[in-house]
C-alpha cells in the first residue's frame, strides 16, 4: 500500500462533480521513482489541449528531469522552503506564457494570456492525477534567476514551477511537512458565486 492511500481525504463537494476534482491535491512527498521524458510529455500534451482566446495557445513550458542539468537550473531558482521538498520530485516544469501574438508583422498584446495559461496548468495537474502522479505548483522562486538560467525569451512571462512525481510515503517527510500533507478545503460555493451579482 502506498502512503497516499492512507491519507484521509475529507473533501466534500457542495454539488455533484467528478471525483477527480476533489481527489487531486498538492502534496510535497515524492518517491525516488524517475519519470521518462515521454511521461512528462504526456502531461504537457494534456496542457496543450486547453482552450484559449482565439486559440492563441500562449502557454510555454520548459522542463527538467531529476538528475539532469535543466532540473538543477530550475531547482536553483526555488526559495529554500520549496527547494527542500521539490528537488526530490521526478521532474520540474516551468509554466510561462507568451504575452503577444504576431499579427501583420507587429506584436499585439493578448490580454488573456495569463487566464489561458492557468487553464493549461489545470489540465496538466489533472492529467498527472489520472496518470497516478502528483503535481504541485509553486510561485516561490526567484524569477530573475529562473529567467537567466533558462534564457527566457523576450515577451515571455513566468508563472510557476510545477513539481511532478509519484506521491511518496508521508513518514519520509520532515514532521513539519507531514502535518500539511492533507487535502485542503475550499470556500463554500455560495461565498464565491452569486446569481446576478458577485458575493
Ligand atoms: C500558482 C500557485 C502557486 C503556488 N505556490 C506554492 C509554493 O510556492 N509553495 C507551496 O508549497 N505550495 C504552493 N502552491 C500550492 C497551493 O498552496 C495549493 O495548490 C493550495 O493550497 C490548494 O491545495 P491543493 O492544490 O492541495 O488542492 C501553489 C499553487 C499554485 C496554483
Give the topology, please.
Layout: H1 20-23, H2 37-48, E1 59-65, H3 69-75, H4 80-86, E2 91-98, E3 100-103, E4 106-109, H5 113-130, E5 134-138, H6 143-149, E6 156-165, H7 175-178, H8 189-192
Antiparallel strand pairs: 1-2, 2-6, 3-4, 5-6
Mean pLDDT: 95
Q: What is the CATH T-level topology?
A: NADH Oxidase
Low-confidence stretches: none
Tertiary shape: globular
Biggest sheet, spatial arrangement of strands? 1-2-6-5
State the CATH class.
Answer: Alpha Beta
* Oligomeric assembly: single chain
The span between the termini is: 43 Å
Structural class per helix/strand content?
alpha+beta
**How would a crystallographer describe the biggest sheet?**
4 strands, antiparallel
**H/E series, N to C?**
HHEHHEEEHEHEHH
Number of strands: 6
Determine Rg (CA atoms, Å): 18 Å
Account of the protein in words:
This protein has 199 residues and is α+β, with helices and mostly antiparallel strands. The protein has a single domain (29-169), classed as NADH Oxidase, CATH 3.40.109.10. 32% of the residues lie in helices and 19% in strands. The protein has eight helices and six strands; from the N terminus they run ααβααβββαβαβαα. The strands form two sheets. Strands 1-2-6-5 form a four-stranded antiparallel sheet. A hairpin with a 2-residue loop joins β3 (100-103) and β4 (106-109). The longest helix has 18 residues, at 113-130. 28% of the residues are buried. It binds flavin mononucleotide. The site of flavin mononucleotide (FMN) has 10 residues, from β5.
